[in-house]
C-alpha cells in the first residue's frame, strides 16, 4: 500500500513537471511569435492541469502559470484590448479551476480519478443486487430506469439466496435521479449485507434502524421484501410504505393485488412493526414488485396506475415472460421519475 501511494505521488510530481515545461514552452512561443500566438494559449496547460493534477499540486501550478503569463505580457510590452481580454479570460478560468480544486480537496484526487472511483463504487454495489442463479422452474428479472436517463437513481434492488430461500427487496429512496444517487449507493450496500445475514422477519426492522442512525434530513425510503420458498412456492411479503405487490394467478388468469397494510416507511419511526402477507405461487403464476414511479404520475393516482400495470401486464406477458420486466417498464411510468420493476415467474 505504501509503495502504491509513493508511485502515485511520483506520478503527480512528474505530471506537474511536464505541465510546467509545457507552460514555459507556450511562453517561449508566445514571445517568439506574438503575431501568431494569442495570450489565451495558456488555457491549454490550465485545461490539462485541471484534469490530471490533484488538489495538492494544482494551486501551485496555477500560481506558476499566472506568473509566467504576466511576465510574458510585460516582455511583449503590449497592452491592447485583445491582450487585456485574454489575460482576464485566463484569470477567470484559473479562478474556476481553483474553486473546483477546493471542492475536490476533501477527496484528495484529480477529477478523472475521482470520477472513476465513483463509477467503480457504483458498479461494485449494483452488482450486489444481481439476481442469483435460480432452479429451472423459476425465472426472475429486474429492470431499472432513472429519471432523465442518468446512471444514478434512487430505486434499487437487492437479492439473496440461501438454499431454497430466495429474498428479493425493491427499495425507493427519497428523491430521484442524481439527488438520491449517493444515498441509494450507500443503502444498497448496507441492505445487501443485512438481507444475506438476517431472517426474513428481521430485515425491514434492521433496515429501519440503520436509516434512523444515519440522521439524514431526507433519510427515508420505502421498500417491499419478497421472501420465496423455491421448493413449494410459498412466499411472504412485507412492505414499508411501499406500493403493493401484484400476482398473476395462472389458474384464473386474473391479477391479484396483495394488501399493502404493512409498516411505515423506513427511517421515520423507531421500533416499527412490519407484518407479513402470505401466499403461494403455483406453476404459471407471476409476481410483480415495483416502485411508485412506475404506477404514479402527476396526472394519475397510484390506484389507476396499478390498474394500468395489470392491463399492460396481461397484454405483454401473454406472449411470454422472458424480458417481460424490460417490456413493461418501457411502457409504464414517467420518464422524469425513477422506476424499478422486478418480475418473478414460476414456469
TrEMBL record:
<dbReference type="InterPro" id="IPR052016">
    <property type="entry name" value="Bact_Sigma-Reg"/>
</dbReference>
<keyword id="KW-0812">Transmembrane</keyword>
<dbReference type="GO" id="GO:0016791">
    <property type="term" value="F:phosphatase activity"/>
</dbReference>
<feature type="transmembrane region" description="Helical">
    <location>
        <begin position="83"/>
        <end position="102"/>
    </location>
</feature>
<keyword id="KW-0472">Membrane</keyword>
<dbReference type="InterPro" id="IPR001932">
    <property type="entry name" value="PPM-type_phosphatase-like_dom"/>
</dbReference>
<keyword id="KW-0378">Hydrolase</keyword>
<dbReference type="Pfam" id="PF07228">
    <property type="entry name" value="SpoIIE"/>
</dbReference>
<dbReference type="InterPro" id="IPR036457">
    <property type="entry name" value="PPM-type-like_dom_sf"/>
</dbReference>
<keyword id="KW-1133">Transmembrane helix</keyword>
<protein>
    <submittedName>
        <fullName>Serine/threonine-protein phosphatase</fullName>
    </submittedName>
</protein>
<feature type="domain" description="PPM-type phosphatase">
    <location>
        <begin position="134"/>
        <end position="346"/>
    </location>
</feature>
<feature type="transmembrane region" description="Helical">
    <location>
        <begin position="60"/>
        <end position="77"/>
    </location>
</feature>
Amino acid at each position: 500500500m505504501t509503495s502504491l501511494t509513493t508511485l502515485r505521488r511520483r506520478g503527480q510530481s512528474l505530471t506537474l513537471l511536464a505541465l510546467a515545461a509545457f507552460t514555459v514552452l507556450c511562453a517561449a512561443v508566445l514571445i517568439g511569435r506574438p503575431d501568431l500566438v494569442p495570450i489565451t494559449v495558456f488555457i491549454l496547460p490550465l485545461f490539462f492541469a485541471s484534469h490530471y493534477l490533484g488538489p495538492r499540486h494544482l494551486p501551485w501550478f496555477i500560481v506558476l502559470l499566472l506568473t509566467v503569463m504576466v511576465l510574458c505580457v510585460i516582455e511583449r510590452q503590449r497592452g491592447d484590448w485583445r491582450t487585456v481580454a485574454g489575460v482576464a479570460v485566463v484569470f477567470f478560468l484559473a479562478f474556476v479551476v481553483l474553486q473546483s480544486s477546493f471542492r475536490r480537496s476533501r477527496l484528495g484526487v484529480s477529477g478523472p480519478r475521482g470520477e472513476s472511483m465513483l463509477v467503480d463504487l457504483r458498479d461494485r454495489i449494483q452488482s450486489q443486487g444481481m439476481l442469483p442463479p435460480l432452479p429451472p422452474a423459476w425465472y426472475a428479472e429486474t429492470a431499472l430506469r432513472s429519471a432523465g436517463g442518468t446512471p444514478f437513481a434512487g430505486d434499487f434492488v437487492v437479492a439473496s439466496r440461501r438454499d431454497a430461500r430466495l429474498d428479493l427487496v425493491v427499495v425507493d429512496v427519497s428523491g430521484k435521479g442524481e439527488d438520491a444517487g449517493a444515498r441509494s449507493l450507500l443503502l444498497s450496500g448496507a441492505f445487501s449485507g443485512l438481507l444475506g445475514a438476517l431472517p426474513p422477519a428481521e430485515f425491514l426492522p434492521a433496515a429501519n434502524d440503520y436509516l434512523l442512525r444515519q440522521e439524514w434530513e431526507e433519510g427515508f425510503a420505502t421498500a417491499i421484501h419478497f421472501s420465496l420458498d423455491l421448493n413449494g412456492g410459498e412466499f411472504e411479503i412485507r412492505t414499508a410504505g411501499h406500493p403493493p405487490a401484484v400476482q398473476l394467478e395462472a389458474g384464473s388468469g386474473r391479477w391479484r393485488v396483495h394488501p399493502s397494510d404493512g409498516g411505515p416507511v423506513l427511517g421515520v419511526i423507531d421500533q416499527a412493526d412490519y407484518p407479513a402477507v402470505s401466499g403461494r405461487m403455483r406453476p404459471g403464476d407471476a409476481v410483480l414488485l415495483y416502485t411508485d414511479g412506475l404506477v404514479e404520475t402527476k396526472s394519475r393516482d397510484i390506484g389507476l396506475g396499478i390498474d394500468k400495470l395489470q392491463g399492460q401486464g396481461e397484454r405483454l406477458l401473454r406472449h411470454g415472460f422472458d424480458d417481460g420486466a424490460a417490456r413493461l417498464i418501457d411502457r409504464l411510468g414517467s420518464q422524469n421519475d425513477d422506476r424499478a420493476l422486478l418480475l418473478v415467474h414460476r414456469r
